[in-house]
Specification:
- By secondary structure, the protein is mostly helical.
- Helix content is 82%, strand content 0%.
- It is built from two helices and no strands.
- α1 packs antiparallel against α2.
Length: 116
């Protein structure tokens, strides 16, 4: 039996109508529970995505900062080379400094690179 107000026997069996109404309410309650469960799942995934996005944003900033530092370093090396071009001792000192920096950088990269 369906609840249809156009049916002339709509209220002729109050017990059946009452039973049908409860059945429909139970179905709606189950659907509401499922919608609530799905909403909680969506919110949980959104939280995970936001955490990933926050982490990614921080990593991009770190990379950008490192890239800018590398640019400044390279520009400084170029300026030092230009200034020392006629002084062999200054060129040797710059070479020694660059070798020491390269070794420190290689060690840092190795230490901070996850194993494959």
């Amino acid at each position: 039996m369906t609840l249809d107000s156009r049916d002339p026997n709509h209220f002729s069996h109050p017990h059946h109508a009452h039973h049908e109404l409860h059945r429909k309410l139970d179905q709606l309650s189950l659907k509401a529970d499922e919608i609530t469960r799905l909403l909680h799942l969506v919110l949980k995934k959104e939280t995970l995505i936001m955490a990933d996005l926050t982490s990614l944003t921080a990593q991009v900033k770190t990379n950008t900062d490192v890239e800018q530092s590398a640019i400044v370093l390279i520009q400084g090396i170029a300026a030092q080379l230009a200034a020392a071009k006629t002084d062999p001792a200054a060129i040797q000192a710059l070479s020694d400094s660059l070798n020491a920096s390269a070794a420190s950088l290689a060690d840092a990269v190795t230490a901070n690179t996850p194993a494959a």
